[in-house]
Design brief:
Layout (H helix, E strand, L loop, with lengths): L5 H33 L23 E14 L7 E7 L2 E8 L2 E7 L3 E9 L2 E10 L19 E11 L4 E10 L5 E13 L4 E12 L1 H8 L3 H6 L10 E14 L4 E12 L1 H4 L8 E12 L1
Antiparallel strand pairs: 1-2, 1-3, 1-13, 3-4, 4-5, 5-6, 6-7, 7-8, 8-9, 9-10, 10-11, 11-12, 12-13
Length: 294
């Protein structure tokens, strides 16, 4: 006869195993979609419900899952005038372990697969492993002769604060590996206001700094590229890469279904904006999505 004390020991690992299997399957699907379809939408429209879970999201030992999809409108590449519309997977899966150095495990469209290692009051600290999109020269005549930038694995560390008055602050460092091999640091501030039980608005402003490797890869022109194009050699140094702002609306159609939309703009700065491959430094973007909470 099974005792009450033995029941959690038999059910809890099964629940964790099912959750991790679901996370692995969905992450594989997410990466496949990005590789095959969404590579052109480079890091746009990520401000809406895509950060690490807040302190009030889950009680210890609980998990939640919200899966969705949408349409993303963004420049073909950073600095392009032309736009592309691509499908956008919108995962938001969290498990609150409540353990030392493992507070929450989560998967979302912004960070990838991550953990909140420490949480105290409004502050949280953690890391993630995600996907950094690439750039292909056949996307635009302006890129002919520049060569391709292959997709890469991206590692992130973040420190975030979510206050009860709706204000959020974030500092995140991202390091891409392989062909990209560059580092960015992004600072963001958000404000969340619930107008009704169903409708919430989220405003975001942010700024991104990039090291010389990142700037050279995305905005530079090396001697080989210069010989293949009409561009002069251009070697941008480290500095502020861009500032951005967005406004998002989240409307609950029911207890399970939610529709969300984001409109925003990113402005390339300094050495990034001065690159000869840039058509326009002003980069509008938008996202419309629908998600279901299990």
């Amino acid at each position: 006869m099974m005792t009450n004390d033995s029941r959690p020991a038999t059910r809890w690992p099964r629940t964790i195993g099912q959750l991790m299997a679901a996370l692995a399957i969905y992450l594989t699907i997410l990466l496949a979609i990005n590789l095959l379809i969404t590579g052109r939408a480079h890091g746009q429209a990520t401000s809406m419900e895509l950060t690490a879970p807040s302190r009030s999201t889950l009680a210890s030992g609980r998990w939640s899952a919200r899966l969705g999809a949408g349409a993303l409108v963004a420049p073909v590449y950073p600095g392009a005038k032309s736009f592309v519309i691509t499908p956008a997977p919108l995962p938001d899966i969290s498990y609150r372990a409540g353990l030392p150095l493992l507070d929450t495990i989560y998967l979302n469209g912004r960070d990838g697969l991550g953990i909140v290692m420490w949480r105290g009051g409004p502050l949280s600290f953690g890391g993630a492993v995600g996907y950094s999109v690439g750039r292909w020269q056949n996307w635009s005549s302006r890129l002919n002769g520049m060569g391709d930038i292959n997709p890469a694995v991206r590692a992130s560390l973040f420190l975030r604060a979510n206050f009860l008055n709706g204000v959020g602050l974030s500092l995140q460092g991202d390091r891409a590996f392989g062909n990209q091999n560059g580092t960015t640091v992004t600072m963001e501030a958000t404000y969340r206001h619930r107008f009704t039980h169903q409708f919430t608005v989220i405003g975001l402003v942010g700024a991104t700094w990039a090291d010389s490797n990142n700037m050279q890869k995305w905005f530079g022109v090396d001697p080989l590229q210069a010989s293949n194009t009409n561009y002069p050699v251009y070697q941008p140094g480290a500095g502020m890469r861009s500032i951005s702002g967005s406004l998002s609306g989240v409307y609950a159609l029911s207890n399970s279904w939610t529709v969300n939309a984001t409109l925003g703009v990113s402005q390339l700065l300094g050495n990034a904006a001065a690159s000869p491959i840039i058509e326009t430094p002003t980069q509008p973007f938008g996202l419309l999505g629908l998600s279901y909470k299990f």
